[in-house]
């Protein structure tokens, strides 16, 4: 059966956080609790801002979007990490690995732009308080959030396109607990020095 991009590698192996089986079992509970706290905390913030009419201001609207992005980022790699802590073989399919790369860069790229937007919002509130409501109206806030999602998507797709062109035919062990681009391109069957420079420049 023909693989994506004529690759003979259909799956990758994570080395994980550590090699000690006892330490992995020990880390299972803390990571599970932290992930649960992250999910509950960010979900609570989003629901609170949506339901409380006193919090329907630009600052809280942007904060709700930031919490939602944080919730998404946490869900890209952490569940797989927690599952792998109890598994002997930490496998991920080629498609799963590419999906991780796409979504990590999509959400992180969007979050960076959203943080810049929040900084701009605070700048306007502090430096131009009398014009704040006219400058940061609801429509502009929505557009700024949409732009952050679009830029995040473009960033994620641009990173993924560069990786999809690579042939993988040799080693398949990733020295991490998720598909990180620099570690994945090291497994390609061609020289990737130039590609590494391009990816770092795109970041």
Features of the shown structure:
203 residues; mainly alpha; Rhopdopsin 7-helix transmembrane proteins; 3-stranded mixed beta sheet; 7 helices; 4% strand; disordered N terminus
What do these coordinates show?
By secondary structure, this protein is mainly α. It has a single domain, classed as Up-down Bundle (Rhopdopsin 7-helix transmembrane proteins). It contains seven helices and three strands; from the N terminus they run E-H-H-E-H-H-H-E-H-H. It has helices at 21-51, 58-84, 94-127, 132-135, 138-164, 181-185, 193-202, and strands spanning 11-14, 91-93, 173-174. The protein has a three-stranded mixed β-sheet. The radius of gyration is 20 Å and the shape is flat.
What is the strand and helix layout of this fold?
Blueprint: E1 11-14, H1 21-51, H2 58-84, E2 91-93, H3 94-127, H4 132-135, H5 138-164, E3 173-174, H6 181-185, H7 193-202
Parallel strand pairs: 1-3
Antiparallel strand pairs: 1-2
Helix pairs in contact: 1-2, 2-3, 3-5
